[in-house]
Structure formats: structure tokens, C-alpha cells
Amino acid sequence: LPNGSTLTTTWSKISGSGTVTFANANVKSTTAMFSVVGTYVLRLTASDGTLSAYDDVSITVVATGSGPTAPAKPAAPSATGDGTATPTLSGTTTAGAIVHVFVDGTEVGTVTAGSDGKWTYTLTGISAGSHTITITAENVGGTSPPSNPMSITVAPTGGGTPPVSDGGGGGGGCGLGGLSSSLFMALFALMKFTQRTRIEHN
pLDDT at position 194, please? Predict the structure, then answer.
């Protein structure tokens, strides 16, 4: 700056559909209020009394609350493979939303909805039995309320039923109802004794 000069700064509106009120138009950093929404060009001018320079900035003003909104409450999902060990859930929500899946109130995973809002999620590692499923959908605007609950039944991993015990050890394969080896030997000896008695008697 030239000796004895003082630098001054001034904010002004160059263009825009409404009026602009600056908290302090003579400082470099200030705040402003806009009367209506729209696009405005504001100018900051600096001067030392001899020379001056300026810079413009473009600002778009939007109405309060007009940003992204949270997804609406999603419908309860549908399920395919109900009664299997790995049922698959599916549904529709806001496009691109993150779907949170809850089993009996505990979150078990997430999936992102497609551009058409559709999503699918396969349950794995869930204990066998009946369970209640709910979901929520999340985006930058917030998280939806939980869906209505739906019920599914999960089968044991591997399916089938546990094998039935033959009730004994060692003798199940001989067709004698699982008799123990000692009892089988006793019966065998009795049969041999009976046979010999019949021969000697005859």
C-alpha cells in the first residue's frame, strides 16, 4: 500500500432477483440475508484510494427444508425360500437408499437399492426357527421409520432331520434290535446247547 493509504473493502450485489442485506458490507468476511430464492452474484471490492480490485462470487439460495428428504416408510419385504436355511428377502424403496435388515430387532446386514428402488438380501447364519423381519431405508436426508414386521421360518443348515438312534451299541447291524455282544453270545450258546440236547435225546 502507498504510504498513508488505507485499504477498504466493500461487498455489493451485482445480480439477483431479490435484495441482499449484508451484516457488515465493509469487512472481508461477513454474512448476508436474501429476500427470495434464486442465483445471485456478489462482489467484494478492495481499494487503497488509488487502485482498486474486485472478485465476484455466485451463490444459489434455496428454501429452507428443500434439501433431500428421508425415504418413506418401506413396505414389509417379501421372502422366497421361506422354510429353508437361507431365505431371500426382497422389496422396493427409494432409489439408491441403503436398506438395513433386522432379524428379531437386531441388524444383520445392509444392501443398496438399485436405480429402480428394488433390492434383495439373502439371510445366512440365522438360527433355525421362526423369526420377525423388519427393514429401514436410509439416504442423505435421514432414515425411514421401520417397515411393518413379517415372519419367516428358517430351517436347520443342511436340512433333513437328525438320524434316529438304534438304541444300542455293537449289535444294530445283526438284525437283533441292537442287542449287546454279550447278550448275543449268550443266546448263541443257548441255541447250541439246545441243538446238542436234541441230538443226544434222539
Answer: 55
Against a cut of 0.85, is the pTM above it? no
Which own/partner pairs from 179-184 qualify as long-range (CB within 8 Å, at least 24 positions apart)? none
Q: What does the block give as the cell for 142?
A: 435421514
pLDDT in tens, 84-102: 999 999 999 999 999 999 9
